[in-house]
Fold this protein.
Amino acid sequence: MRIQGLINWVHRRRTKDHLKHLDLLNEFRTALSQLATEVEAASAMQMYDINKVCENLMLGVFREIYGWRDLRNLNAEEKANFPGVDLADDKAGVAIQVTATSNLDKVKDTIETFLEHGLDKKYQRVIIYVLGRRQGSYSQDAIDRAARGRVKLNATDDILDYRDLCGAAADVGPKQIAAALEVVREYMRGGLARGLSEEDFDPPDSPLQRVNLNLIEISFPSTLYIADLRLDIEPSKGRRGRGGRKMVREALQAFDLRPPSDFEVSSHQLITFHPLDDAHGPFANVIERGTVTSLRPREFYGLDEDRERVFKSLLRLTLQQKLYRHKVQWMHEDNLFIFVPREEGDNLREESWFGQRASTRRVYERKLNRNDPSKTFLCKHLAFSADFILSTGKWYVAINPDWHFSVGADFRRSAYADKNLAWLKRQEVNRTVADHFRFLNSWLSGLDQDDFFDSAKGPATSLAFADVVSFPNHPHLPDDSWLPSRERPDDEGGSNGLFESL
């Protein structure tokens, strides 16, 4: 009995320790995922200072998870903007680039800079750590050409993101995970983590603050429909990219039908939130009815990164269809949504919204030719980009306010747009951009109520907007220390033909 009791005690102790280990892994994964979301949002807003802060954060995490005890920050110890890489362990012979940019060009540029400064003589392994998400795949041939046989960088093993760190954490003991987790916790609190020296990490003296990101949580229909296209609907040889969507539109137009925009085509299948089992649905004439499959969206986008990309494209097209009904037009060449006049010939468009109080905001203005008022000189549009992000099982849209200057009936980009944008953005301070976002958030949320009470517009297949993402314990960001001074226009009406400030 004593032996059996001892066995039971050991079993309970091991089970308890195992559960604690799992809790640590889960919290570590959640913390790194939250950090990745924060970085992606900052990048979407073109705010890259967070990359520098994360160098020392990742320094502590890599020390604990990979055991590189001599890892140091080259930008701090050697010189600012050290070429090619940010962190290095001279004894282990490993160098690490910490970046928010995940594309192949960044990888090749890192390798070329690394070789240009002869760092291959000191470090045998180069790692690129992507603070957000790495791409689904990289061309190993292109990487090898950049490396010229002087350094090895394996696209699978040496280009990492938080998911790879979480995978590596599963292979180390709970003490190392707890230490790495403490590094991340202290970063979130703005303090100094154990395992980092004062030289490694310089915590802010100012108090913490709540930061609202430009991320809005979204929801979408709970059912996704997939069906094979008819065999006779096939993109012509040589067509790539949007060829499948174009063939679907052409096939439906042959039936005098104008299809909605919210569908994707991949692997000769049509993917949409519209019920494809409806014989009177908008796509009934282009699919094989017997192949219709309904599933939960997660069962599709969760399969692999290729399907996740297809689903992101479907979300953007669904948003495009929703906004089209409200006179917001998608400009493919500029990757922007722009406000357009409600009626042809309108010179102004203003929208009501509620921030701290009820207000109106001008979102479109047409400036007429001084010499011939019957002609348009330039149109100014409030605009925004929309990027979709999946994090910790939830979907968000990153809204980045912008401007668009157009000419012509189709609102094509003006030849002077870059000059006008540069001038206008120099006038905008951080509060101005924040107000643009607050307006867009309020206006987008108001669309959900409009669509809900207008059943003819089919709200069942659309997106809905929820809460803005915020972090309550973010290090204080002193605007005065990094924002450029605001230039003043030549007159209150604005200069360079930019009209009055919206």
